[in-house]
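Q: How would the structure tokens look for this protein?
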Amino acid sequence: MRKLIVLGVVGLLAQLVDGSLGMAYGVTSTTLLLTAGIAPATASAAVHLAEIGTTLASGAAHWRFGNVDWKVVGRIAVPGAIGAFAGATVLSSIATDAAAPWMSGILLALGVYILLRFTVRPPQDTGDRRPLRARFLAPLGAFAGFVDATGGGGWGPVATPALLASGRMEPRKIIGSVDTSEFLIATSASVGFLIGLGGSAIPFDIVATLLVGGLIAAPIAAWLVRVIPARMLGAAVGGLIVLTNLRTLFKSFGTPDDIRYVAYAAVSVAWAAAVAVALRAVLRSRAAEPAQVS
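A: Here is the predicted structure in token form.
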């Protein structure tokens, strides 16, 4: 019972992060599940099954508010689903000892991205509205889907910045289209895990607990994003993901204590600096608001 309560909190925290940043549900929840001792393939399977419900609700909301470009969804979601199925199949066939450092390495890289993404200035909307071509969206979707399944998360952190960098879509349309596409990615990855692991290996109690925690957190996240600046939350969460998965990698490779402690100290200093930079940017932005109004 205690374990289910902890996992419910994991789902709640992951949804708080995702609802506030527009990404990182899978990255956050999988990182926390690995820390709790859940096997890599099982953790990714549980997260993706829970995401079927959360992404369906999210996609419906974005559709209702006109945030979805269905042409982009069609061009990115189908290759993404294929990549996610392939990634789930690959991860299901890897032994737990080998999969743990692989998944932690992917999560570490995504954590670094999230840390930098919300510390430095994000890509700007150029106003260029030329249609995005399938030759760009299809490979992006396939890669993002594969990373998402093998890393337990990554669809948003991979797909969203690539579309933002193109400057050819409104940010709200990018977030809405990526979130809506994720329903198909989560479904395809879940099918892959069900085939690769078998239904009996899927911890449906964990899936249900993650889902309940996420549903409870959804309205709280909507309020939280108004209270805590996304830039601050992103820097804080990114550093936590980096530090946690670095610990898992060191443990997998038997890294000596002296090296580990030096690395932890260096990452902690960099993390604190990133949070300070984000805080400074937020305060500077707020100080400029009265001047703009007047």
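Residues 257-293 form the longest helix (37 residues).

The chain has one domain: 2-293.

Upvote if useful.
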